[in-house]
Amino acid sequence: MAAPFPVAVMRDTAVLYVKWFDGFTGRPTYTLPFVPSATHVVIDPHYQTLDLYVHNNTMRTRGVLKKLESLRPKLLAGFESNRHIQLF
To answer: Which residues pair with 41 in a beta bridge?
Structure first.
């Protein structure tokens, strides 16, 4: 199902720019404006759409391994986070 979705350019938790894209089939390429102070790009940052795989919606703008989310080890059980890879 090809449904529209938002893409946000963010600096930490602040949204700097949001653009909605039409749904697609295949592997299209989209462009976003350059924002020098941006730290990452997020697909659907406010969870407005139905997405089964919310863990792969973030990409950093700088650094090595841009698509790898930060690792958060936990000693005891805790709540699940969509923003980090967690080890229990």
So the answer is: 9, 59
For residue 54, give every residue at least 6 positions away whose Cβ sits within 8 Å of its Cβ, in sequence order, or none.
44, 47, 82
pLDDT along the chain (88 residues), means of 10: 89 91 88 89 88 82 71 62 57
What's the predicted TM-score (pTM) here?
0.70
- In the chain, where the domains are located: 5-87
Name residue, tokens 């690792």: 71
Q: What is the distance between the alpha carbons of residues 88 and 76, in angstroms, rounded to a whole number?
A: 6
d(CA 50, CA 53): 9
Token pair 């602040």 is found at 14
Whole-angstrom Cα distance, residue 40 to residue 42?
7
Q: Which residues contact 56 (CB under 8 A, 6 or more apart)?
A: 67
